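Q: Here's a chain of 244 amino acids. Please give me its 3D structure as tokens.
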Amino acid sequence: MRIIISMLLTLSLQLSRIPYASSSNGNACPDKPMEVDQGSPYSSVNLLMGNSLCDRVIQQDIPNAMKPVCMGATKLADEVYKGMIPRIKTLDKSIDDMLTRLATLKLNTGLPTCRVGYEYYAEDRFCYMLHSECKTWSEARQICRQEGGDLISLNDYNFKYFKDVARLKAGACNHVWVGTTDIAVEGKWNWLNGLNVSSSFWQPQQPDNWDNKEHCGDLKSPDYLLNDERCDIPLHFLCQIRKS
């Protein structure tokens, strides 16, 4: 690089003693840098050097040994310029991505904050958490209440979503307690929010109140449809905390 710069300086000094080439109409070129079309292979070096040095090399009758120096500098400048284009495009994309994320954050600033471990379910405006520990139905409900909520009450719109949550997150205890029971009135299954349980939520031939001891509802593997179960069996459980 130092050799090229030194040779360019030498070439520039030599060319300073050479008048500009005549134009096609016979007039001398004006005393200013020659304009080079941006598509020209010499455009980059002209921009970098601030004059029409290479054009003068091409147009003047100077020793051919000097021309490769300028051509090499032109090629180097063009390679540097072209090498910057992908980086500029990458930087532009990064900026666009950051602006998009910023816009998303601004849109989400109004969302409620859930307590640690809970996630926000925007459609029904509540926070939820599937607890990995296994508790009886009564113990599970007590924990949910201590955290500011209750065992989850499902509906026609969110049942499939939380069925999938149970399927993906259930651990060793396999099944997941939810907020429904018929303890108050045998055979009358209501959610803890007072709404009736849809018959489409149940597994086939459920609820069956096996041995007259199954009075609490859980999402049972492998399909995690609703099942009636003994309330004293330790299972995972889904809590919800209303935010509306």
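Q: Can you summarize the key feature?
A: Residues 18 and 60 are 8 Å apart (CA to CA).
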